[in-house]
Write the structure tokens for this entry.
Amino acid sequence: MRTSHKEAQNPQKLLWFLCLFAALSAPAFAQVNLSGVWDNLGILHEDWPDRLFGPELGDYTGVPLTQEARLRAEAWDASLITLPEYQCRVHPSDYVPSFAGMRIWEERDRDSQQLIAIHTHHFAWGTERTIWMDGRPHPPEYALHTSQGFSTGKWEGDILTVYATHLKEGWIRRNGIPRSDRASVVEHFIRHADGLTLMTVITDPVYLTEPMVRTREYEYVIGGQIGPYPCEPVDEILRPKGVIPHHLPGTNPFLKEFAESHNLPLEGARGGAETMYPEYQLKMKR
Amino acid sequence: MKTTFISAFVFISLVSFTRAQQNQNLNSVEVHVLPVQGNVYMLVGAGSNITVQIGTDGVLVVDAQYASLSDKILAAIRTVSKGPIRYLINTTYDADHTGGNEPIRKAGSTIAGGNVAGDIQDAAEGAQIVAHDNVLKRMGNRPSAAWPTSTFLGDEKKLFFNGEGIAIIHQPVAHTDGDSIVFFRRSDVISTGDIFTTNSYPVIDLAAGGSIQGVIDGLNRLVDMIIPVYGQEGGTLVIPGHGRLSDLGDVINCREMTIIIRDRIQDMIKKGMTLEQVKAARPTRDYDPLYGSVPGWTADMFVEAVYKSLKK
């Protein structure tokens, strides 16, 4: 950058000019930059049952699921994920925050430095996602649905609010509770210095009776790296073509294990909106 | 045979009519163009999805929706190619796939010459309509101008058009007995016809030779053909008979649902349950919010078709 002789002679004036320019330019940029590597390995105790080993069979607590969702969950057999075409199925964007770290980076227009998109890359299954920040519309319903969905974002103060549609069918919990492809998801990325809260609100008109809310916490990692996550399916069990492991209605032997081992009433373990609120404890006592 | 024909006609008329009813008034229907990948586009209007492949050789169209939409369909095709329409492939005989056969055929032309042009003076008139021979057999009640002009009897018919190999693969006794899957090998796109849909239970036209096992075989075949980029996503893209653009994950979800419901009904049959008892047990209940509310192809109709197919 060339500086004129006159400006060079008056550095104080130049400084004021730069400060004024920066102040005027500020509204065009996000107040918060989320870029970097965020991890949650140190705080995985939060919602532990949903993480790593996964939830127990028959644990539907805290989920406002419909009776239809419960029936699907009861038919679910964990052997499903031994099928080669299921082994590398990635977690959907509304579930993957439960797992390990993610990298966030910005994509800006080179000339204007306007924010075009924010990208995320999760360690788990290497899922990548684009959150469009340039105001583009969501595609029509007949466009491809993906595990990560189509996401647009906007800044609400210092909070990044993201709206995702075009999600493939996924899961609310890894024990068979489904989330339909008609769901939409609102997320709030809330940075607190070196901490990040990711709040996820899932609205599913098919399998939830009310929005499902959960939060995940992350810590900023200076110099953090995200490793690769290769996955190659293999034949774990040789089966005839077209076999889908599942339980026929009324035959799943594992559904009571969770309630019995934790000394919970079975009705409460089966979830539903009513069981999520404190008033339900009173009902149980009666 | 006559009863079968009438049943088939009533069945397909009902499904087609109600699907048309969903759209209330075809005059208000817009035909949208969605680029898929490679040379292939998906057209969405009313009735079946349309697949369009374009290139220097011209235009190839898979399925034709309704005749009253043909002007809009042709206008949509012209937004992506001005080339001559050479081929129209029918994946099934249903009216919402073949209703526009005549006007779309007339808008195209066939390259003819040599022996063909000598004996068949109108050989060059109109695009070729390609379908399995059973499609032609089931279209006897339609105007002859809408009939397939080039049928095949075996497992497969192959074309090389617009720089890529195209396999038209017969899937026997699935949605009907005349279904075809169209595989664009270089573009890596499969057009499935009604063997795979994303917004309803699989339609099994028993009177036209369909069966639940044939649908499952067709879905298994699709799973075998598709190569994803990673996990269940990307790579080969799939244009369903009805519903949204898809990939492996969507086909797998559909196959999972279809097999689970088949297994449940099979188990009920083994227990000696009657059709009415099976319907009352609601073996599709957990999937009904997703697929069971399509007028003309309800959950009850699907259950009945699966039951009767398994009892055969």
User: Anything to note?
Assistant: Confidence is low (pLDDT under 50) at residues 1-8 of chain A.
